[in-house]
Design a protein that fits this description.
This protein is mainly alpha-helical and 111 residues long. About 16% of the residues have low confidence. The chain has a 3-stranded antiparallel sheet, with no helix packed on it. Helix content is 43%, strand content 9%. The chain has 3 helices and 3 strands; from the N terminus they run αββαβα.
Length: 111
């Protein structure tokens, strides 16, 4: 009986690990229509990036910011209009290596 419980526990554990890994693969970063450049000259690929949101809210004294508004000091830039100077500082939370390479291609086209 103990062996069966142990086997079931191991089976459940592995199924959770496998399903978690599959869901992570499905959450790939994709570039949207816009990227976001904040007041500290950091580029973000996601409007809802926690680093972008927290920084903007700290710089703002307005408690009435809605989720559709951009935080203080944030500029919305069309992704295809990115320039090389924007790529100096990229947010590590929302821009991984593959997104950086994609942004770099757009920036090279715009030179």
């Amino acid at each position: 009986m103990v062996k069966i419980r142990f086997f079931v526990a191991v089976l459940v554990f592995f199924s959770i690990i496998v399903s978690w890994g599959c869901s992570k693969k499905g959450q790939q970063n994709n570039l949207g229509e816009y990227v976001y450049y904040d007041a500290s000259k950091t580029l973000h690929s996601k409007r809802d990036c926690i680093a972008l949101t927290l920084r903007g809210l700290r710089e703002s004294n307005d408690d009435n910011i809605t989720s559709d508004e951009l935080p203080t000091g944030v500029v919305r830039i069309p992704t295809k209009e990115v320039e090389m100077e924007f790529l100096t500082w990229c947010c590590p939370r929302c821009i991984d290596d593959s997104l950086f390479k994609e942004l770099e291609l757009y920036a090279k086209q715009n030179q």
